[in-house]
């Protein structure tokens, strides 16, 4: 009779899985957020896109009026989806002595945690992932998370170098098919990104950056997820929601980016955006679509919109981004000439990424071109040149990264909409802002679900809270 | 040598009684007395005439030589001998019951000609709350007895048909973008086959049924064949239904937005009506339509149609003294109020029951086959018909769109591109289909061991297969047309799912019934129960369609997404029920049961519980008060029941790789030829315990002045401990939930039924009144300290929650942000900003419910009507939300839409150091921003309405053709009824929108949240004929 009742094992799910299956799932989760909700949020806050008139799904973003429940889903997908699966992969590869897979999972965890800190500020980390043993993980200071991520990546690199065991996950690594050289390069580039985010803090570490530059083993391929097909729930995440589900009616080109490209005759304009129904590239000022005038009754297809296709890859980190990181690192800690070289490489790689001719890029980065780099200029001016191009090269590639970098560096400059400089392609304070003039979000609210369930986490008072690397 | 016997039947006051049944015992030879109480029947010497009449003690008189036999019937004041079927088929005298038990007989069940047994009980049983999800054909009705007992599981009672539990699962989806409801298992029962329904409410009575009885039990006894001549019953009912309520629209401002008359807007935020001729809609082939700019009266009503309902029944029964058989068939065809048959429901039932007695062995069985087929019009947002309808500006005539292929009306040129389209297109091209084949029945063999004991084996089977199909049409406007590239464009979809659900139930019973001496009697039942429930399902869908008008999984360039699941649970139970009776006036009943569940961890698997109740018939003890109080019973009971949970809740799981994409989509593996599994989001719980319901009740049944006034009163107090719930975990734990024991719910309430015989004249005018009153206070008494609240559903902005110490359940939503002085903080447009934390708006429970029935009769004519009053409670209404958003609702007329400053409002400014200061707001909400004001998150409270109502639930006017006339026909009787349902509805001021009984969130706890664009409810008028020969 007792055996007769032992039937409570769910026949609908496997009893055991392996690290390869979980790694694929984690990569799918990270891709969905980076290429989906973060892509949309970043696209609006980096001022690539803005809310179209006659629709309103993302009004709150352009109004700088995000609800406290805005991030519920993306937070859950990253913590309980991606990161928890990565914990499984880390544990299993650790037990098996698989240093390769351990490095892969460590990189993806560090990558994901960094975005959580950069978008939300201090978040649970050291007490997280303990299931019902600790249902209220406290937050860790962002600074400590950063330092720990760096040391975890270093440890995983060291362990791999000490006993290099190639990952055996093969095709289940949908990013680099378990090619460890690529993952080591990703680890180095990720470290550079982490260090540069800390460059204005007391944790700035020129020695570590210099050492990375000297080693010079950065990305040789884009870190991208390409396994999409044009079918329900298999498409590029931004396409699936914005275009397939919501009908391509919310996001239109923001003049902040569109004008930048247009003024400089930059052909990336026609790669990043698709034209309106008349074949023209017309954008609107950030936030103006929500206002009653002057576009009342206008619809999204009367403007240029982001050109994302069902199978457009999601880039977790791109070659141009890697180049611009190196350019910034050289500008700060090395020679201006090397900075210029990496800067120009970055612009060219950006054109390549969008499928454009590098000759067009050359015209622009020539000494008399609009994007010329002045190796004799002050550091701050060099940084502005680098960051403006990085921003212009992240559009439709990694939008959330673009927003984070505008917060860190202040470039492209933020001006008033009436400022003539805006014509050159700067950022403005959203015209729909509900915040008083001169204010712009610096992080987003913790999601309500977390605040309600985690007694050790307190909601921030407003969207103006700076994350640790931006605090004075 | 038949003689014709004649006579008069009268009551003890000498008043003749019309309508008394007079039959020759053991035969089907019967007649009824006429207006004057007179009858005439053929009988032989030695035959026994049986005189029976509702409320009277049946009399039997043996025919002697005399051909005139007058009979006198006594009032059945005490109903002492009434036998009711209680737990596991055990029959007990009603007087012996120590817990509140209500029995509803066949006549009451079928009077309103309801097709659904739950609806047939509505308003007839105190403490039982019956809610219909909608009045759509075939939609489900839920029954909640004595309040919400569990937050995690089902609150529906257990249905037991002829001793065997049957499946009452539902087929519904509360999807916000295409919900449907194809009903519950209980509505497969043909009400015309029911002899009686008994509702067991308290744990002291239900504990014998085990875990599934924790929410009460509805015991159904079906009709069996009658010995004697072959008898045929026929019934036919027709109803015609109309829409009963549409949202109340403003009639001042027409199409447009921001006070501008824009011809493509899906809203009425335009300029004031002026009656001038204006063009409307898109320009097509250089032409455009013209109409006066005027409000359309009855705009929505005109869209809807008259629905029909036809039900026909036939039953044949017969047999001899040892064996009887009954065969029944019913057919129901219903078409709802949407034009077309997109909302329809057909049901066929065949029932066969037979019993035979062979000495000490008695064998009986019944087998039922039910076939249902339905179609429903999707509820919710998106391209659903209602969502299309409710956004049409109040000056457009909806019926103009009827020809949806017309060049102005087709999807390319329909007047608006904003995510909605021609409702006639969606109604005709999108759709659903539901089919169910079900077989259920029972087999019973009992053997009399001695004259005081018997053994019984009973086997029950309930099995069904259902299939659900949904499709949405491709919406692909012609390139270059006004709607090309708009959010209305859809790729079409098709999905199909099949379930097979099976339940097997075995009971072995040993009954003994002994009189120890003349004062003391014992009735006892020992039983063993084995129950297995399995289900299996297979579903597939595609998110696009290639060919228009053909709907199939294969009609797509996509590979179908397929999924399958299975589930099995088993239960063993061992039980005993014993009643001691003392001098037929004191009764004591004890129940004890031990269950073993497959769904719980091994160490918590065995659960022992039971109940005890007592009753005292004090009018038998003190017989001298019978002049005033002719019947009085005091009863009290206490019981406990263990409740298990769904299968597979305790172990950790790995699930197929999938990522949530903003709630609008997802990224599902396999991708690029690679599959994925991930760590499931539900954490394991090896310590899960069963829930335990503990309930105390006390009651009083009183009848005064020869039962002219009767009162049943019950007070109960129930607690359900160890609530099995999903503990929401912070995502930072790596999980999002764990199934755990988390709280305690209490339900305290009173049930009272007062019946008054205002006039009682057996020969003339009778007037009976009944008041059915109940209150119930459901409360979440305790909640695990790890939880601040329990989320029970709803939306992200406005939701259904439970908080410790508060009534169950509450609606929570956004409120305006205020400063320390309580002034409302507004944004730069003068519109209130939502506070960062939500607040509780109030609870969803009725404060009280009152059913009020009047029954008038004069000779063969009777009029019966029931009012249903429910007071208190809140619900969310998306109908309110959307009609406010588009400016159609009459509630969007504050200040005649002229600019106004939100009273007592301030604007905030945040300094660089983060300090906040407030200045008086001088910004008026402009005409261009008025629509934003009505859809502001801060003002979400306006989408939550008071769900109180008063309804004229049912009116039945019946006429029975007098026996004198029937004698001249081959018919035994014939009755005609006119029936009205939901004829009137009154609601409070805050509800300008809907019938507050409707819900799109099913019929259990989550339905308390309200509706998300539910289809409108109906009123109906019908005609019914019943006869027997």
Q: Which features does this protein show?
A:
heterodimer; A: mainly alpha; two-stranded antiparallel ribbon; 10 strands; B: 1029 residues; mainly beta; Immunoglobulin-like; Maltoporin, Chain A; 22-stranded antiparallel β-barrel; five-stranded mixed β-sheet; 9 helices; 59 strands; 49% strand
Describe this structure in words.
The complex is a heterodimer of chains A (about 475) and B (about 1050). Chain A has about 475 residues and is mainly alpha-helical. Chain A contains 16 helices and 10 strands. Chain A has a single domain, classed as Serine Threonine Protein Phosphatase 5, Tetratricopeptide repeat (Alpha Horseshoe). In chain A, the strands form 5 sheets. A two-stranded antiparallel ribbon of chain A has the order 1-5. Chain A has a two-stranded antiparallel ribbon with strand order 2-3. Chain A is globular, with a radius of gyration of 22 Å. With about 1050 residues, chain B is mainly β. Chain B has 9 helices and 59 strands. Chain B starts with a strand and ends with a strand. The relative contact order of chain B is 0.12. Classes of the chains: A mainly alpha (about 475), B mainly beta (about 1050). At the A-B interface, α1, α3, β2, α8 and α16 of A face β30, β35, β36, β37 and β53 of B.
């Amino acid at each position: 009779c007792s055996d007769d009742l032992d039937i409570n094992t769910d026949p609908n799910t496997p009893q055991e899985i392996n690290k390869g299956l979980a790694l694929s799932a984690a990569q799918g989760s990270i891709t969905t957020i980076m290429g989906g909700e973060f892509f949309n949020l970043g696209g609006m806050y980096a001022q690539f896109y803005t809310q179209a008139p006659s629709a309103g799904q993302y009004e709150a973003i352009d109004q700088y009026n995000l609800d406290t429940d805005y991030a519920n889903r993306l937070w859950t997908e990253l913590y309980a989806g991606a990161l928890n699966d990565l914990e499984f992969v880390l544990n299993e590869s650790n037990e098996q002595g698989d240093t390769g897979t351990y490095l892969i999972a460590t990189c993806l965890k560090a990558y994901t945690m960094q975005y959580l800190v950069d978008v939300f500020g201090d978040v649970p980390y050291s007490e997280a992932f303990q299931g019902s043993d600790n249902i209220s993980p406290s937050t860790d200071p962002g600074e400590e998370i950063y330092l720990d991520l760096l040391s975890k990546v270093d440890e995983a690199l060291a362990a791999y170098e000490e006993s290099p065991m190639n990952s055996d996950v093969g095709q289940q690594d949908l990013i680099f098919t378990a090619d460890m050289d690529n993952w080591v390069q990703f680890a180095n580039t990720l470290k550079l990104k982490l260090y540069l985010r800390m460059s204005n803090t007391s944790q700035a570490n020129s020695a570590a950056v210099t050492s990375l530059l000297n080693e010079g083993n950065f990305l040789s391929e884009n870190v991208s997820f390409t396994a999409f097909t044009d079918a329900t729930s298999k498409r590029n995440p931004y396409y699936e929601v914005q275009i397939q589900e919501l009908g391509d009616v919310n996001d239109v080109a923001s003049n902040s980016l569109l004008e930048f490209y247009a003024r400089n005759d930059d052909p990336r304009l026609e790669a990043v955006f698709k034209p309106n129904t008349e074949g023209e590239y017309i954008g609107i000022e950030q936030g103006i679509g929500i206002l009653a005038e002057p576009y009342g009754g206008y619809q999204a297809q009367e403007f240029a919109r982001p050109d994302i296709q069902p199978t457009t890859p999601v880039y977790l980190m791109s070659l141009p981004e890697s180049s611009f990181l190196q350019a910034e690192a050289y500008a700060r800690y090395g020679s201006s000439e090397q900075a210029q070289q990496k800067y120009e490489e970055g612009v060219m790689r950006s054109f390549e990424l969008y499928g454009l001719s590098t000759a067009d890029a050359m015209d622009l980065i020539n000494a008399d071109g609009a994007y010329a780099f002045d190796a004799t200029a002050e550091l701050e001016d060099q940084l502005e040149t680098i960051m403006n191009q990085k921003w212009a090269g992240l559009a439709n590639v990694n939008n959330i990264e673009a927003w984070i970098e505008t917060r860190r560096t202040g470039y492209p400059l933020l001006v008033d909409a009436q400022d003539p400089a805006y014509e050159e392609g700067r950022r403005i304070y959203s015209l729909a802002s509900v915040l008083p003039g001169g204010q712009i979000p610096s992080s987003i609210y913790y999601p309500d679900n977390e605040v309600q369930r985690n007694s050790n986490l307190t909601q921030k008072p407003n969207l103006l809270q700076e994350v640790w690397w931006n605090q004075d | 040598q038949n003689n014709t016997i004649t006579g008069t039947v009268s009551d003890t006051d000498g008043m003749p009684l019309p309508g008394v049944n007079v039959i020759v015992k053991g035969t089907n030879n019967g007649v009824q007395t006429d207006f004057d109480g007179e009858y005439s029947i053929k009988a032989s010497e030695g035959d026994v005439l049986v005189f029976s009449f509702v409320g009277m003690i049946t009399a039997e008189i043996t025919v002697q030589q005399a051909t005139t036999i007058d009979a006198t019937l006594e009032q059945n004041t005490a109903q002492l001998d009434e036998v009711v079927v209680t737990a596991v088929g055990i029959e007990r005298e009603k007087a012996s019951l120590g817990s509140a038990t209500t029995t509803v007989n066949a006549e009451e069940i079928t009077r309103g000609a309801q097709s659904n047994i739950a609806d047939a009980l509505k308003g007839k049983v105190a403490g039982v709350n019956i809610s219909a999800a909608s009045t759509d054909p075939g939609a489900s009705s839920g029954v909640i007895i004595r309040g919400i007992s569990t937050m995690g599981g089902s609150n529906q009672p257990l249905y037991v048909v002829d001793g065997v539990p049957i499946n009452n699962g539902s087929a519904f989806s509360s999807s916000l973008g295409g919900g449907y409801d194809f009903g519950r298992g209980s509505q497969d029962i043909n009400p015309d086959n029911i002899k009686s329904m008994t509702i067991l409410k308290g744990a002291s009575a239900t504990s014998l049924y085990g875990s599934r009885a924790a929410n009460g039990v509805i015991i159904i006894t079906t009709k069996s064949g009658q010995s004697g001549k072959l008898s045929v019953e026929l019934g036919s009912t027709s109803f015609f239904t109309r829409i009963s309520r549409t949202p109340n629209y403003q009639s001042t401002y027409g199409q447009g937005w921001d006070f501008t008359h824009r011809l493509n807007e899906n809203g009425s935020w335009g300029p004031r009506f002026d009656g001038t001729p204006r063009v409307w809609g898109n320009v097509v082939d250089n032409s455009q339509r013209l109409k006066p700019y005027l409000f359309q009266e009855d705009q929505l009503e005109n869209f809807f149609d008259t629905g029909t309902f036809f039900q026909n029944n036939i039953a044949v029964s017969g047999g001899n003294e040892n064996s009887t058989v009954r065969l029944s068939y019913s057919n129901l065809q219903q078409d709802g109020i949407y034009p077309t048959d997109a909302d329809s429901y057909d049901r066929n039932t065949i029932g066969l029951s037979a019993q035979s007695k062979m000495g000490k062995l008695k064998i009986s069985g019944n087998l039922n086959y039910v076939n249902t087929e339905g179609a429903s019009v999707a509820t919710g947002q998106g391209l659903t018909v209602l969502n299309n309808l409710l956004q049409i500006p109040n000056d457009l005539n909806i019926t103009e769109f009827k020809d949806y292929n017309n060049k102005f009306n087709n999807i390319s040129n329909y007047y608006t591109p904003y995510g909605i389209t021609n409702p006639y297109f969606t109604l005709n091209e999108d759709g659903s289909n539901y089919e169910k084949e079900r077989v259920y029945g029972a087999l019973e063999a009992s053997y009399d061991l001695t004259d005081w004991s018997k053994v019984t084996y009973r086997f029950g089977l309930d099995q069904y297969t259902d299939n659900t199909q949904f499709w949405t049409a491709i919406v692909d406007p012609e390139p270059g047309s006004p709607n090309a590239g708009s959010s209305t464009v859809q790729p079409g979809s098709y999905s199909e799912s099949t379930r097979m659900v099976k339940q097997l139930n075995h009971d072995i019973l040993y009954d003994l019934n002994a009189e120890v001496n003349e004062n003391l009697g014992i009735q006892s039942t020992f039983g063993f129960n084995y129950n297995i429930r399995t289900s299996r399902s297979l579903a597939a869908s595609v998110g696009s369609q290639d060919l228009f008008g053909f709907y199939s999984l294969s009609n797509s360039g996509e590979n179908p997404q397929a999924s399958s699941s299975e589930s099995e649970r088993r239960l063993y139970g061992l039980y005993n029920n014993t009643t001691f009776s003392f001098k037929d006036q004191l009764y004591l009943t004890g129940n004890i049961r031990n269950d073993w569940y497959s769904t719980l961890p091994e160490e918590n698997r065995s659960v022992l519980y039971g109940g005890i109740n007592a009753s005292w018939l004090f009018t038998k003890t003190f017989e001298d008060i019978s002049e005033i109080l002719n019947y009085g019973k005091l009863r009290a009971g206490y019981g406990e029941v263990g409740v298990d949970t769904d299968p597979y809740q305790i172990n950790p799981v790995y699930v197929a790789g999938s990522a949530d994409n903003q709630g609008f989509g997802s990224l599902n593996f396999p991708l690029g030829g690679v599959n994925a599994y991930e760590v499931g989001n539900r954490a394991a719980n090896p310590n899960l315990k069963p829930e335990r319901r503990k309930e105390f009740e006390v009651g009083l049944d009183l009848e005064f002045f020869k039962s002219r006034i009767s009162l049943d009163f019950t007070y109960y107090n129930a607690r359900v401990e160890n609530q099995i719930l999903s503990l929401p975990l912070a995502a930072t734990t790596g999980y999002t939930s764990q199934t755990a024991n988390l709280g305690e719910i209490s339900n305290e309430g009173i049930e009272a039924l007062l019946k008054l015989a205002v006039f009682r004249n057996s020969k003339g005018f009778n007037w009976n009144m009944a008041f059915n009153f109940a209150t119930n206070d459901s409360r979440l008494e305790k909640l695990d300290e790890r939880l601040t609240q329990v989320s029970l559903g709803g939306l992200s902005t406005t939701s259904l929650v439970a908080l410790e110490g508060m009534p169950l359940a509450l609606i929570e939503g956004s409120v305006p942000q205020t400063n320390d002085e309580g002034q409302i903080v507004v944004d730069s447009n003068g519109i209130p900003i939502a506070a960062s934390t939500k607040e509780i708006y109030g609870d969803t429970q009725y404060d009280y419910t009152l059913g009020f029935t009047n029954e008038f009769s004069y000779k063969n004519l009777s009029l019966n009507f029931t009012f249903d009053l429910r007071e208190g409670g809140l619900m969310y209404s998306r109908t309110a939300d959307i009609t406010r958003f588009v400016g159609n609702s009459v509630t969007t007329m504050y200040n005649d839409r002229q600019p106004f400053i939100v009273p007592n409002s301030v604007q905030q400014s945040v300094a660089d150091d983060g300090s906040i200061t407030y200045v008086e707001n001088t910004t008026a909400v402009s005409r261009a921003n008025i629509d934003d004001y009505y859809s502001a998150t801060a003002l979400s409270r306006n989408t939550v309405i008071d769900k109180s109502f008063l309804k004229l639930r049912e009116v039945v006017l019946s006429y029975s053709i007098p026996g004198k006339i029937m004698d001249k026909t081959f018919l035994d009787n014939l009755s005609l009824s006119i029936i009205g349902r939901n004829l009137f509805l009154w609601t409070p001021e805050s509800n300008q929108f809907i019938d507050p009984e409707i819900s799109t969130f099913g019929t259990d706890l989550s339905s308390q949240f309200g509706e998300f664009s539910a289809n409108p409810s109906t009123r109906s008028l019908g005609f019914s004929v019943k006869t027997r020969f």
